[in-house]
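Standup notes, structure subgroup. Blocker cleared on the zinc ion input:
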Amino acid sequence: MQATADFHTHTVYSHGKGTVEENVQAAIKRGLKTIGISDHGPGHFFIGIGGINKVRQLRKEIKSLQQKYPQIEILLGMEANIVDVDGTIDVTAEMLAELDYLLVGYHKLVRPRSMAAFCLGAQNFTAGWLDLKPERLRQQNTAAICAAVERYPVKAVTHPGLQIDIDTKALAAACIKTGTLMEINSAYAEKLEDYVKIALRLGANFIVNSDAHTPERVGDFSAAYRLIEKVKIPLERLVNITR
Ligand SMILES: [Zn+2]
Ligand SMILES: [Zn+2]
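Run returned:
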């Protein structure tokens, strides 16, 4: 298997360790044709990208790196957070206009936009801590993430079901309906097997990403490849993998 692109990498603009240029150089070394920089949205406590000016600065940096490294396509994305129960994300229309693509990830520790979102976040935090999966909470989470997929031009949902319990079947249905990809995240591949099996059976299409937080991990899909072989995902269901 050979990857053509990695759309999910972090840099110092959120809590990645490497610069944009270091990620680009790593992607070239891996033989990728496309590298996406997708730092955390601004709603993420402590680590989210700081506002529209930072996004514009990042866009400028990518533009000049693109001239320096014409052998690879460098894209600007973002890993948006869900900040309200109706699926609202933390990436504004102004920011969205700067991006080449949008990823959405359901994370804990994000700045809630309403009291309902605060309560949902607190319940998810507690449920994760106590290792509980109450059905009502799962339904509310599923409604929020499906709404996000339907409301925004989401390229892919990152690591579905990783930190927050959701109904994979409902999310896969929403992704199929809207042409949204589901991610096979190589940083957490072992934890995502159950979701991948369900989404595969239902007919979703996948994208493989590294979720690299260091340049060394850019394009490192080894754990994802093991899962793809184990679960036997046909290559035509993986948009960025060739043989
Ligand atoms: Zn994430
Ligand atoms: Zn990430």
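Discussed briefly. The CA atoms of residues 168 and 195 lie 6 Å apart.
Next: hand off to the docking folks.
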